[in-house]
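@channel anyone free to eyeball this complex?
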Amino acid sequence: MFTFSFKKFALPFSIIIILLIAIYIYSYRGGEGDLNAIDANSNGVWDDYEKALEVRFRSIPNAKNAAIQMGKSLQIILADPSEAMEKDKAFSKAMSCLVAAGMYDGLLVQEAAELVGQVRDLVVSNDLRQDRYIKFNSNLSGQVLEAKLPDLTNCEFKISERR
Amino acid sequence: MMRQSFMSLLLVILCICTNSEASCGSSKVSLFFANGMFNDRAGAYESLIYLWGSYSKKFPESKATQYSIAFNTNEPFLQQLHQVYKQKAKESNLSFWKSFSFLLSKMGQDEYRNFIRNIVNEDMAKDQDLKEQVRAYKDKLSNGYRVVTIAHSQGNFYTLFSFEELGNDSLRMISVATPASYVFGEGPYFTFHSDGVISHIPNSLPPNINKEPSGIFDHEFINHYMKDKGASEHILESIKVAIDRKGEDPPHTINPADGYFNTDMSKALEWTQNIIISDEKLSEGVCILAQSVFSVSGLHGRSCEGRNFTMLEQSVRDCGKPDNPEGGETNCPFYRGMDFGNPYIGFYAPESNDFYQKHPECVLTYNEFKKIKKSGGKKAVEILNTLRM
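replying in thread with the prediction:
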């Protein structure tokens, strides 16, 4: 006769339940419905983006700091794309800083300009972030936006010496 | 003694600085980039800075005073494309904002054509609330700026509708990859024969430049137009013409706010504006002076600085001088060729038509003009002296 022994199955059963919950949480955080706004070292920069910058911007240190500034302004936008004109001010400043920092690090102005799109792609990197960014763009549609020329005074960090 | 010399030197420097700043009413230029449908906020900034960098390198002496983005986007279109992206993303290995040509290439021919025609059309722009952009352009104009807009793709419709609402002579439009059937103020346009978007838009201006090597999309502002040497040269040179106003054909209006004249002409221009609407019969001297103002408005190849009071003074004095004893044309610039119906009149400020209609007493045959030119010229100089600034 088969008898169900609760004690015998309790441990594996609990492990399976915990595993299922962990998988659910993990997939939720990294999946379509989430910004994946993980900031394990609590420095205000989302981890996936921070890691990508380490690799891509290694040789241009000031541009890397500027990319972090731009990333932070984008994080605020992606968290809530409303009040777009107000949030665009910091975003505009950060883009101006990024191009200026890229030029300071030795890039041509055209190369530095293209960093802007690269940083956007690194930050706006999953479905929800893209949805939110589209919403932000939509909220700006029909407006006239100031285009600040490249200028290091728009940077919110200390510029390091040229190598 | 040294202090006096230093003060004199300072005064001279100050005068030069003041003069150069105030030499031309609307030397201030506000440059706009009106983005296309495939450009997001960051992409529009990237495009403008890329353009600015290329322009500054090619023409370091020529600058706009301000830079702005006349931004537009189309959320339903982007959401639609985003859905396609989600399905095809793994294949493309591209970021969403750089995947458009790839995604469109995955569509069937008919699907692609319909999709393009749905998203790039003037109705879309008409539906958009343009009041903010119109207001911004208006602000720039009323603050004495001339406006130069480089419009890409769908941005052309937004620019056209905004400019048409304002209809100002200080607005200049340069079109890149335009889906529209015309450019405001007959400005220049550049569309590749291989532009894979515009080639599907009915009634768009025909393509006029080649891309080597050509691709299947060839529509993006930086990657296709600005990175093509030929297209980029055309675009930058058009901006130079629009900013410097060199090589532009008249008519140049005499409204001082339009900035076609040096600021030292302001009094003379205001005087002429009043004369045009005056109900009184005009004297010979007044006729000669007003006609001389129109003649200065038609000076070819000159910047606004060149259309100045000295030129007007010279023109008036020349009209009072005796004719060349060896025959030939009169010294009076506005009267030259009058025997043949004055071929220059078409190049004068458009207000000259109102002037001649309202004051037929100023329309003279050459023989009549010869009779009055000495006394009329003298009187014109007298009036001119009261208009000196």
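from a first look: DSSP finds 15 helices and five strands in chain B.
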